[in-house]
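Subject: complex prediction, re-run

Hi both,

The earlier run crashed halfway through, so I resubmitted it with identical inputs.
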Amino acid sequence: MMDFLSTLISGLSLGSIYALIALGYTMVYGIAKMLNFAHGDVIMVGAFAVITSVSMLGLSPVLSILISIVCCVVLGVSIERIAYKPLRKSPPLAVLITAIGVSYFLQSLALLIFGSTQHSFPKIINMPAIELGELTIRGNMLITLVITTAIMAGMSIFINKSKTGKAMRAVSEDRDAAELMGISVNRTITITFAIGSALAAVAGLFYGTTYGFIGPYTGSMPGIKAFVAAVFGGIGSMPGAMLGGILLGVIENLSKRYISTELSDAIVFAVLIIVLMVKPTGLLGKKINEKV
Amino acid sequence: MLKVDDIHVYYGQIHAIKGVSFEVHEGEIVALIGANGAGKSTILKTVSGLLRPKSGSISFLGENIHHTEAYKLVNRGLAHVPEGRRIFLQMTVRENLDMGAFTRKDDSEKDIDDVFRRFPRLKEREKQIAGTLSGGEQQMLAMGRAMMSKPKLLMLDEPSMGLAPILVEQIFDIVREFHAMGTTILLVEQNAGKALAVADRAYVLEQGRITLSGTGEELASSDAVKKAYLGG
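This time it finished cleanly. Structure:
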C-alpha cells in the first residue's frame, strides 16, 4: 500500500511537470493554431540556463530561476517572431516542418555550446523528505507538486477572469472577430508564446531536479510526452492539458513500477491510442457545433 | 465620414471588387444591396481592415485607413458586425459584451446595463454560453457587442439573415434606434425591401461593381431594382 502511494505521488509529481509543458503546447495550438514542436527544447534551454547560472557563474538559485525564465521567454517570443510569424498565412504543414527545424536548431546549438555530455543539474531545491508514518515523500516532489498546482490554478484564473485571458480565448475561437473587437491578434500570440515559454522554464527546473542530468536532447522526450498529454486531454483545452499531463505521469510511473520499465512508454502511448479511439477529441476536448 | 475611392480587392486570383467608390456621411443610414456573391461582405471586410485593397483608398474621419490594421480602427470609432454574427460561441453572453468593450479604458458597466435593458433576453442569459442562444438572440448579442465600443460608424453585414420575419422586423427597429442615438450606419443586406425602407441612401452592387445609387425611395421605386431585388 505504501509502495503504491509513493509511486502514485511520484507519478503525480512527474505528471504535473508534463502538465506544465502540455499547457504551453495547448495554448499555442489554441491561439496560434500550430503545433510548436520546438517547445520541448525550450525546456532544455531553460535547464541549461539554470546550470550555467548556478554551476558556472555561481549565482543564487532564485536569481538563476529568474534568468532561466527570462531566457526562455525571450527565446520563445523570438522563435515566434523569426520563424513562425512570417508563415502565419502558409499551409499548416510548412509551419509544422519549420517547428521541427527550430527544434533541431536548438538541439544543435546546445550541442555546440555544452557538448554531448550530460551535465549534472544543481540541487537548488533543498527540502527535506517528509515522513508520514511509513510513507516518505521526497522534498523536491512535494515542492514540484505545490508549485505546479499553484501555477495551474493561477493560469485558470488568468484565462477565465483577466481581460488578457479573455482576449486569448476570443482569439482562439475566432481570430477575425477578435480583431474586430480591437484585440491585436499578433500581440495576443506573442503573449501566448511568452507564457508558454515561462511555463517551460519552470518545467525545465523541475525536470532537471527530478532527473539530475541535462543534455542537448533532454527536451525532446518530455516535449513529446507533453504533446501526447495535450492530445490526450483534448488539444486546445487548458483543463485537458492539465488532466492529460497528470494522468500521463501517473500511468507512466505505475507501469514502470508494476509492469515493466522498458514497456512504460509503450503503455503510455497505447493508452493514448485507446482514448483517442473512444473519444477522438481527447478527454476534455469538445467538438464545436456551430449554430448559423 | 467614410469615403471609399476606387478600391480593387482580390481573393488570390479572383478579382472580387472592381473599382468601387461610395461615401457615407455622418448621421446617415446607407445600404449596400445586391445578390449573393456581389461583393458586399468583401467591401465591409476591406473597410474594417480584415482585407487589404490592391489599389484605391479608404478614408474614415478624414484619415486614410486602408493600411491600418483592423484592431486599431475600433478605437477610432468603427464597428463591424460581420456576416454570420461571429459571436464567441464558447464564451458567456456577458464575456462577449466585455470583449466588445475591449478597447475602452473607462467603466463599461453602464453600457452593459443599457444593452441588457434593450435586450432583456440577453440579461436572462447573461451567464450562459453564447453558443446556446437562438439565432435571433445571437444577432442581438452581436449588435449589442458592437455597440459596446461606442462606434461612430456601425457596419452591419446581413443582420436579418436566417431570421424569422418577426425577428427581422425587430432587428430593423434596433437599427433605427441605434441611428436615433446618433450612430451612422452602413448596412449590407440581401433583403433589399427592408434595407431600402430604412436607408437614407443606397448603392446597388453587381459582380463587384456599383451599378446604381440613389436615395432609398428612388431605388425602391426604380424598375431595375424592383425587377432584380424586390420580386417584380
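Chain B has one domain: 2-90+151-229.

- K.
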